[in-house]
């Protein structure tokens, strides 16, 4: 059962058709197992996992104590019932999840594949496939393992695959086998194939493979283009054969299914601390009562020893006190309620379903709903302070359109129309029958240039039709469908298609293009592929006349360094055009070419072949050969592609900024493009005092630029001390380049960078790598101790999404890797405001109210036992019936608090969006913290005092109507329990801000359930069946018919509730919350709206000229946000701002690299915008 795992591999050796040889290396089988349990291991393993939770272990310990009769005054079922309920619910949930994992595993493992065995094809289940087997794949089949492609049905042994399960991209990709194995297309030939592959060990790099094939005393280099990875689907290929290299858990698909870092909310961390404090409090109470027992037994109990001896094994008062301590630990254990954790998970699950069911976050265009992919972070959505966003595909649509271009120094695409006229879209179909009818372009000059035979224009579009990796699918004559790896590339090839250079098809060695109606086939000599370091790609082709030419497209910053010196003048003109395009927010590429002689090609081809076959540092050697040939190129021009903003992005950013959420954009685009998008989405405005540009290449230059920005900020603070709106956060922005960011994130400078960046309203980081995105998020988490959210749509955003407290994936054009790594996903950036300001704020509010009430009701319930101890000789006698103790948390009070935790609201969703400042209490953690916890505990203790001493005082001297004394233990227990349930029910009715039918049913239904169960438990029928279990026979019936008992319950309820009501009314009047003000304004509007009467002119508009311009300029945003604060009487927002300053002064002590200048943060203090009348009032007041 337990066998040693094989040592880690340094290299993998695989011999085809030789299972005996391959089994020596103990390679993994192709069976995958994502499940955790089986029938035998489920119970022990699941229980072991559950008892890793401290609370479960604690209650198991209590259960063991209750089995000791000398110390337990409660039956064992008072603890085992809730414990078993909690363990069962969790076990059922885990079993259900694992069942679906088993079902998925079995479905995959039992798929059929065809394996070549002894010259024939035999069907085998996927789980039985082994490393070294040769399998046959047919069209539309999933690839069973990581295969080396040996041959296929297509010419040149090509095959086409779809990699959606690997990287989310639905476009087809091409793979090709080695030419030496291409003829092995017959099972008999494949059965005799005995080649040996030596390659890298299993890893998770999807775009990389390095190995060698040894066969017939020759060796052949292998790369990623020869591999078919598990999870891919074979498309447009009748069949192919492949050699299994990696199987099962060793495949790259499974290697990428690593465990995601478990994220916990700040409330979870606080709860763990509070539960520890409560346990310490429980121990202290137990010790106090144990000391009381020792004193009582020595002073009073000893007097009864002559006729009432101690129970064995007690023989002295100290041992009695020791046993009493453990007895009280058992009785008072409900201050740490086991049902708390289950209730929290149920509430979070409900919040997750609300997100999934929100029709207002459903995208009709792509039929995609919002999805909460986790249930543990919902309340954290209400506490976000920093958002880190990708640009392309997140803020923009990532649907590219060819917009402008520059060819030989001439700019095209800018069309100026006479006033009142619309630009005319060019008709390409009359000129080119193969044109894409959806393509839009308006500058006729470019089309005329191509028609007139301008060589530069034609060479420009010839380059675009040849230099790419697009796949073309022609279902019928003239109906072309392009499958591009990126939207940019698809847009460029489509542009070339419409201007007469139509890419038709490709083979591994040729590219066929229809040029102005004439079919031309180019010999494809080499592809110098794109990567993030090169930032360019090239192709080397030979035209039908035999001329060899290199075509290159890429980032202008890198391509211009490789131009021939004669291009200097043209490069300056093109640079101006590129800057104009970048200023318009367009994505740009530069295009160039180089003619090669036959000798140059032969020499380079040999060096490239040697580099390609090298076994060590292959990538570096290939990069060096690429660098060698991509020199002395001639500039053709540049392209500019438009990536439009998504719908609602500017409005969303504006609203989130008013909620005091800082938004940082982290993008790989060039600075000019990123800055222009910043202006488009209103992150940057012309009214800003300054936009700091950090672009230094050295540590010293970056430090100087940061310090200059810091000095400017300090000066602004000093000047703004005389201004009412003193915050500088709305006046500055920071733009930093990737090379500068690398220095800014160094240990000795990151403090300065964070200080300066966080004092700015907007931060844009451009030309950053995926790793830098994650580092920026990490440094803010480290220095600001704030909740961070990262949002992106591509694989390059995964590290950032996983690093942030909350990760959001956009299901867009760049695949689904970001979605798979995220905690929440949807299709449009604009849904983020609803996720945070509505669902996030409500989730935080509901969880905080739930926790406050939960701790209150449990302390009110438990502390009655503590006071009773002083009146029962510290004998560990319980106040309540043991069944009441068992059912209090799981029946009588569980559903009302769950309803409040799931459905409660303070203001409607429309008001949450209208008044973004309502979001700030969550950022400051105001609704549930240590202070609020102690207030709840104090209220619970006060309630317990009232519930014990009021019935004790009244009933001790009371008598029934018959003259018999009313005071007895069971009457007191029933009275106290009834008063407790009524008080906590009234309290939750007061705490509930939004009543639904479910709330009414649960609150009043729970109260009715209590009376029903109590009467049933105290009935004679149950007593006659179980006489030893039900000791309170007839108690409730005899107690609740006494008017004095109901007066006592009413008195206790009034004494408990009236102070709470008085405090809340005073707080509402003297220091109202912003939500109170919003509810008040809503109520006032509703009353004004209901006013009737005859119609008459109501013109009395106190308005001044120029205010319309003020609104359109956006300069009134601060004043309008101040208006509601002024309307909110004396509370304004000063209490929030004071807490915010206090929080940041304590959590962020002064620090700097030099030790002289303190690290500051100046925060924006936005206010929600109320209605116009209130805004005018403030404006008149300010004037």
UniProtKB/TrEMBL annotation:
Binding site for ATP: 390-392, 489, 530, 553, 587, 667-669, 767, 773, 796-797
Record's bilayer topology term: Multi-pass membrane protein
Cofactors, names only: Mg(2+)
Subcellular location: Endomembrane system; Membrane
Gene3D superfamilies: Calcium-transporting ATPase, cytoplasmic domain N, Calcium-transporting ATPase, cytoplasmic transduction domain A, HAD superfamily/HAD-like
Highest taxon of the lineage: Eukaryota
GO molecular function: ATP binding; ATP hydrolysis activity; magnesium ion binding; phosphatidylcholine flippase activity
Sequence segments annotated as region (Disordered): 1138-1169
Keyword check for Plastid: no
SUPFAM superfamilies noted in UniProt: Calcium ATPase, transduction domain A, Calcium ATPase, transmembrane domain M, HAD-like, Metal cation-transporting ATPase, ATP-binding domain N
Cellular-component GO terms for this entry: plasma membrane; trans-Golgi network
Residue span, P-type ATPase N-terminal domain: 14-80
Keyword Transferase: no
PROSITE patterns: ATPASE_E1_E2 (PS00154)
Pfam families per UniProt: Cation_ATPase, PhoLip_ATPase_C, PhoLip_ATPase_N
EC assignment: 7.6.2.1
Active site: 390
Similarity-based family: Belongs to the cation transport ATPase (P-type) (TC 3.A.3) family. Type IV subfamily.
Full protein name: Phospholipid-transporting ATPase
Species in which this protein is naturally found: Esox lucius
């Amino acid at each position: 059962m337990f066998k040693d795992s094989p040592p880690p591999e340094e290299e993998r050796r695989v011999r085809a058709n030789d299972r005996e040889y391959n089994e020596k290396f103990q390679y993994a089988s192709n069976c995958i197992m994502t499940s955790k349990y089986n029938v035998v291991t489920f119970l022990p393993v699941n229980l072991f996992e559950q008892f890793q939770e401290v609370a479960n272990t604690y209650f198991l310990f209590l259960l063991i104590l209750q089995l000791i009769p000398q110390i337990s005054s409660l039956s064992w079922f008072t603890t085992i019932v809730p414990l078993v309920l909690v363990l069962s619910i969790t076990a059922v949930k885990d079993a259900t999840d694992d069942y679906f994992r088993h079902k998925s595993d079995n479905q995959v493992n039992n798929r059929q594949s065809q394996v070549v065995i002894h010259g024939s094809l035999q069907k085998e289940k996927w789980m039985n496939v082994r490393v070294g087997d040769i399998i046959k794949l047919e069209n539309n089949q999933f690839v069973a393992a990581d295969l080396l492609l040996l041959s296929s049905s297509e010419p040149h042994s090509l095959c086409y695959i779809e990699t959606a399960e690997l990287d989310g991209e639905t476009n087809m990709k091409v793979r090709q086998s080695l030419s030496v194995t291409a003829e092995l297309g017959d099972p008999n030939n494949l059965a005799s194939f005995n080649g040996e592959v030596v390659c890298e060990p299993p890893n998770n790099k999807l775009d990389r493979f390095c190995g060698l094939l040894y066969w017939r005393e020759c060796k052949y280099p292998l790369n990623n283009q020869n591999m078919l990875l598990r999870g891919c689907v074979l498309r447009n290929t009748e069949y192919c054969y492949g050699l299994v290299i990696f199987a099962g858990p060793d495949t790259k698909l499974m290697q990428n299914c690593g465990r995601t870092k478990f994220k916990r909310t700040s409330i979870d961390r606080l709860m763990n601390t509070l539960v520890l404090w409560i346990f310490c409090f429980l121990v202290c109470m137990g010790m106090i009562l144990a000391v009381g027992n020792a004193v009582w037994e020595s002073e009073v109990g000893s007097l009864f020893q002559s006729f009432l001896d101690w129970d064995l094994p007690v023989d002295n008062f100290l041992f009695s006190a020791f046993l009493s301590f453990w007895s009280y630990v058992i009785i008072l254990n409900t201050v740490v309620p086991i049902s708390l954790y289950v209730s929290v998970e149920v509430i979070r699950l409900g919040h997750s379903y609300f997100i999934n069911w929100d029709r207002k976050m459903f995208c009709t265009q792509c039929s995609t709903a919002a999805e909460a992919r986790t249930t543990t972070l919902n309340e954290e959505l209400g506490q976000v302070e920093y958002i880190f966003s990708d640009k392309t595909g997140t803020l923009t649509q990532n649907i590219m359109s060819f917009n402008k271009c520059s060819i030989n120094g001439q700019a095209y695409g800018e069309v100026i129309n006479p006033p009142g006229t619309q630009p005319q879209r060019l008709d390409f179909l009359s000129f080119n029958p193969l044109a894409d009818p959806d393509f839009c372009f308006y500058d006729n000059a470019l089309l005329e240039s191509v028609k007139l035979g301008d060589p530069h224009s034609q060479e420009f579009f010839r380059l675009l039709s040849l230099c790419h990796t697009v796949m073309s699918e022609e279902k019928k004559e003239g109906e072309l469908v392009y499958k591009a790896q990126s939207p940019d590339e698809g847009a460029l090839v489509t542009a070339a298609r419409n201007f007469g250079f139509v890419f038709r098809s490709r083979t591994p060695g040729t590219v066929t293009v229809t040029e102005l109606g004439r079919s031309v086939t180019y010999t494809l000599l080499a592809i110098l592929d794109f990567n993030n370091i090169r930032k360019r790609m090239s192709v080397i082709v030979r035209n039908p006349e035999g001329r060899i030419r290199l075509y290159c497209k890429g980032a202008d910053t890198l391509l211009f360094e490789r131009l021939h010196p004669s291009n200097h003048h043209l490069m300056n003109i093109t640079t101006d055009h590129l800057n104009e395009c970048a200023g318009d927010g367009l994505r740009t590429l530069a295009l160039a070419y180089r003619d090669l002689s036959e000798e140059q090609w032969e020499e380079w081809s040999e060096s490239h072949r040697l580099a390609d076959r090298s076994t060590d540092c292959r990538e570096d050697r290939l990069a060096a050969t690429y660098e060698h040939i991509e020199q002395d190129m001639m500039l053709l021009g540049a392209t500019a592609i438009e990536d439009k903003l998504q719908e609602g992005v500017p409005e969303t950013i504006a609203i989130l900024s008013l909620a005091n959420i800082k938004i940082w954009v982290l993008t790989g685009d060039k600075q000019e493009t990123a800055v222009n998008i910043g202006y488009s989405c209103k992150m940057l405005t012309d009214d800003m005092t300054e936009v700091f540009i950090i672009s230094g290449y050295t540590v010293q230059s970056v430090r100087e630029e940061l310090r200059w920005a810091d000095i400017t900020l300090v000066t602004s603070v000093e000047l703004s001390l005389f201004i009412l709106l003193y915050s500088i956060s709305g006046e500055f922005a920071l733009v930093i380049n990737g090379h500068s960011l690398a220095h800014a994130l160094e240990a000795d400078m990151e403090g300065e960078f964070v200080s300066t960046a966080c004092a700015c309203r907007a931060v844009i980081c451009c030309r950053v790598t995926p790793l830098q995105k994650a580092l920026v998020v990490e440094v803010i988490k480290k220095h600001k101790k704030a909740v961070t959210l990262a949002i992106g749509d591509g694989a390059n955003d995964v590290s950032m999404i996983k690093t942030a407290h909350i990760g959001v994936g956009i299901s867009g054009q760049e695949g689904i890797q970001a979605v798979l790594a995220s905690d929440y996903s949807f299709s449009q950036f604009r849904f983020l405001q609803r996720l945070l300001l509505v669902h996030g704020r409500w989730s935080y509010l509901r969880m905080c109210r739930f926790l406050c009430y939960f701790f209150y009701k449990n302390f009110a319930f438990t502390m009655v036992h503590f006071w009773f101890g002083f009146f029962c000789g510290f004998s560990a006698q319980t106040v309540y019936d043991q069944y009441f103790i068992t059912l209090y948390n799981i029946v009588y009070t569980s559903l009302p608090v769950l309803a409040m935790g799931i459905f409660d609201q303070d203001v409607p969703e429309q008001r949450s969006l209208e008044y973004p400042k309502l979001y700030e209490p969550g950022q400051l953690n105001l609704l549930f913290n240590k202070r609020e916890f102690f207030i709840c505990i104090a209220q619970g203790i006060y309630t317990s005092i009232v519930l014990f001493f009021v019935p004790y005082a009244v009933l001790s001297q009371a008598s029934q109507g018959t003259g018999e004394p009313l005071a007895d233990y069971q009457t007191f227990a029933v009275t106290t329990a009834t008063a407790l349930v009524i008080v906590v029910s009234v309290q939750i009715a007061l705490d509930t801000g939004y009543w639904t039918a479910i709330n009414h049913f649960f609150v009043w239904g729970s109260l009715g359930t209590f009376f029903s169960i109590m009467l049933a438990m105290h009935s004679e029928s149950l007593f006659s069946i179980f006489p030893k279990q039900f000791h309170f026979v007839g108690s409730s019936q005899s107690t609740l018919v006494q008017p004095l008992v109901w007066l006592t319950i009413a008195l206790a309820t009034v004494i408990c509730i009236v102070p709470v009501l008085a405090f809340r009314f005073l707080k509402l009047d003297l220091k109202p919350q912003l939500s109170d003000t919003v509810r008040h304004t809503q109520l006032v509007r509703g009353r004004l709206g209901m006013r009737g009467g005859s119609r008459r002119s109501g013109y009395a508009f106190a308005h001044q000229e120029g205010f319309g311009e003020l609104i359109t300029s956006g300069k009134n945003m601060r004043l309008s946000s101040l208006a509601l604060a002024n309307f909110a009487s004396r509370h304004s927002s000063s209490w929030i701002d004071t807490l915010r300053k206090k929080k940041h002064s304590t959590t962020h002590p002064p620090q700097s690299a030099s030790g002289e200048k303190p690290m500051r943060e100046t925060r924006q203090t936005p206010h929600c915008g109320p209605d116009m009348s209130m805004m005018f009032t403030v404006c008149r007041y300010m004037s």
